[in-house]
Amino acid sequence: MRIVIDAMGSDDYPTPDVAGAVLAAREWDDDIIIVGREEAIRQEMARHDTAGLKLEIVHAPEVIEMDDEPAWAAREKKNSSMHVGMTLVREGEADAYVSAGNTGGVLAVATLHTLRRIRGVKRPALAAILPLPAGRFVTLDIGANADCRPEYLIQFALMGHTYARAVLGCPEPRVALLSNGEEPGKGNTLVKDTYKLMSSSDLNFNFIGNFEPKEALAGEADVVVADGFTGNVFIKTLEATAKMLTNLIREEIKASPVTAMGGLLAKPAFGRVARRVDPFEVGGGPLLGVNGVVIVGHGRSNARAIKNAIGQARKAVQGGVVEAIRAGLAEEQP
């Protein structure tokens, strides 16, 4: 397998990006193509033992920065690491692309300049893989499309269903619609209209109704669908809540000698919990609906997160996600 990593993606590029690529090449023995400014990449690689690893550098002189306006940067920076990396996927020289860079930039370059949308896809969606009491679930869209129509959400459901089957191993994923109540009449106009469409018996996925966040986090669904604005607020609230609780627990444990001693005894358990809710354990989420596997990570990703994002890309390629979405959409066409 050949996977592209955008070396100029993360907030601290290229340090974690290159380090994560090295970790991935060592763990899976895949060909990792590191795209970006060659001199900077070579300087960073010199800090690692890369003997025997399948690492290749492809030069890309321009960088789409985090504060660049996505549409402008995608149009004007045609020699960026994003353009060069995704072009390798488009031309069949690589199987997947991974970046912790500007999310809007990734979306614009993928949809407008390189990979393009899968035939029939109205809007690509960015998905997140979130923890459950047992396993994980997919939620989408988490920010690619702030304003949506019901037909977009139907396609998000189909793509999320496909990803859950191919990558998370759910034989018959349960699909839910994120709302402010479980009853069919709850929600805004978009949710109500989407509910009516999703209740149709001829859809090729298992729709189980409206869900509030508490049901989603209880593990009662495998795919949770929302417009990009709602989904983005949902996931950012979850991340902020997890961080706040972790900090509060740490502060209270240190508040007295007794609790500090108990904290030492419980430290292994706290560590396991932290790993289960740590987004870096997943590394990134897929951009679904384009003609190629694209994984988008956090800008603040460290080397472990980059390695795990590459792992997500491997699973998506192995699961044939793009082909499955293409086939599923073809079945839905009249």
Strand order of the largest sheet: 3-2-1-4-11-10-5-6-9-7-8
**Low-confidence stretches at least 5 residues in length (pLDDT < 50)?**
none
Mean pLDDT: 89
Q: Compute the number of helices.
A: 12
* Structure classification: alpha/beta
What is the second-level CATH architecture of the largest domain?
3-Layer(aba) Sandwich
CATH evolutionary superfamily of the largest domain: Isopropylmalate Dehydrogenase
Succession of helices and strands: EHEHEHHEHEEHEHEHEHHEEHH
CATH class of the largest domain: Alpha Beta
The helicity comes to: 40-55%
Please name the CATH topology of the largest domain: Isopropylmalate Dehydrogenase
Indicate the radius of gyration in whole angstroms.
Answer: 20 Å
Percent strand: 15-25%
Structural domains: how many: 2
Q: Termini, distance in Å?
A: 36 Å
What's the overall geometry?
globular
Query: How many strands in all?
Result: 11
Outline the biggest β-sheet.
11 strands, mixed
Short description:
With 334 residues, the chain is of the alpha/beta class.
Describe this structure in words.
The chain is an alpha/beta fold and 334 residues long. It has two domains: 1-121 and 289-334, Isopropylmalate Dehydrogenase, CATH 3.40.718.10; 126-279, Isopropylmalate Dehydrogenase, CATH 3.40.718.10. The chain is built from twelve helices and eleven strands. The chain has helices spanning 15-28, 38-45, 70-76, 81-90, 103-113, 150-166, 189-198, 213-217, 228-253, 257-277, 303-318, 321-332; strands at 2-6, 31-36, 55-59, 96-99, 125-131, 136-140, 174-178, 206-211, 223-225, 284-288, 293-297. Strands 3-2-1-4-11-10-5-6-9-7-8 form an eleven-stranded mixed sheet, sandwiched between helices. Helix 1 packs across helix 11, helix 3 packs across helix 5 and helix 6 (150-166) packs across helix 7 (189-198). The chain is globular.
